[in-house]
Design a protein that fits this description.
The protein is of the alpha+beta class. It is built from three helices and two strands, in the order H-E-H-E-H. The protein has a two-stranded antiparallel ribbon. The longest helix has 18 residues. It is flat and about 40 Å long.
């Protein structure tokens, strides 16, 4: 992800496709965290792992947009 960012990408998105190589402990921790997030957030995040790397310029745009009330999030 960092390599993509260093070569100019402002937003890098990655998805973990499998937990086959994760240890039992890591799988259990991921399950517990996903259950907690799902219950608190009201959305099912089980079996989903995605990651985003945002350039500072993009973060500043998002923050500025939120402060102005001009960001719309899909349900």
């Amino acid at each position: 992800m960092i390599d993509k960012w260093r070569t100019g990408a402002q937003i890098v998105h990655a998805v973990k496709r499998s937990r086959k190589e994760d240890s039992a402990g890591k799988k259990a921790a991921a399950y517990c965290i996903n259950q907690l997030i799902s219950s608190l957030g009201g959305i099912n995040v089980n079996n989903s792992s995605d990651f985003k790397l945002l350039d500072r310029e993009i973060v500043d745009i998002i923050v500025y947009s939120c402060l102005k009330g001009s960001v719309f999030f899909a349900d």
